[in-house]
């Protein structure tokens, strides 16, 4: 967690979020799935009684990633949409 949210002991230096989720986008996940996962994350933090200012700080980092899921899904499926319809 601390790696992902970048304020921890070790800064996350892996793949970009877009690259890490390439397969996920191709399988059909997008903003709908992101909202479910992000919602569960916040719910879990609250259930664990994480102070609300910290939950807020995490939300500020996570929410911009929604756009990555939106763009990633669109890009992964653009080629299919461009194909001429058979009807
Ligand atoms: C809250 C937003 C999310 C964060 C911060 C996050 C973070 C990450 C990270 C750090 C990785 C590992 C990247 C690496 O290999 O270095 C990863 C991989 C993965 N994530 Fe997420 N993720 C998020 C949302 C989601 C959602 C919405 C899904 C699907 C519904 C998902 C499914 C996966 C899968 C399947 C992998 C492994 C991909 C592969 O091995 O090809 N993640 N995620």
Protein architecture, described:
By secondary structure, the protein is mainly α. The protein has one domain. The protein is 63% helix and 0% strand. It has five helices and no strands. The protein has helices at 17-20, 22-26, 31-47, 52-62, 65-82. α3 packs antiparallel against α4 (52-62). 7% of the residues are buried.
List the helices and strands and how they pair.
Layout: H1 17-20, H2 22-26, H3 31-47, H4 52-62, H5 65-82
Helix pairs in contact: 3-4
The protein binds protoporphyrin IX containing FE.
Residues 4, 14-15, 20-21, 23-24, 29, 33-34, 37-38, 41, 62, 65 line the site of protoporphyrin IX containing FE (HEM).
Keywords:
elongated; 87 residues; binds protoporphyrin IX containing FE; mainly alpha
Helix content: 55-70%
Oligomer: single chain
The overall number of domains is: 1
Strand content: under 5%
Low-confidence stretches: none
Give me the Rg, rounded.
16 Å
Let me know the number of strands. Answer: 0
Q: How would you characterize the largest beta sheet?
A: none
End-to-end distance: 49 Å
Judged by helices, strands and strand pairing, the structural class is mainly alpha
Ions, cofactors and other bound molecules? protoporphyrin IX containing FE
């Amino acid at each position: 967690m601390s790696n992902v949210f970048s304020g921890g002991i070790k800064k996350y230096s892996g793949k970009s979020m877009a690259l890490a989720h390439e397969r996920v986008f191709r399988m059909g996940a997008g903003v709908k799935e992101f909202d479910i996962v992000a919602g569960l994350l916040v719910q879990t933090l609250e259930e664990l009684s994480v102070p609300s200012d910290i939950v807020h700080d995490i939300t500020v980092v996570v929410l911009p990633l929604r756009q990555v899921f939106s763009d990633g899904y669109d890009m992964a499926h653009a080629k299919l949409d461009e194909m001429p319809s058979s009807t």
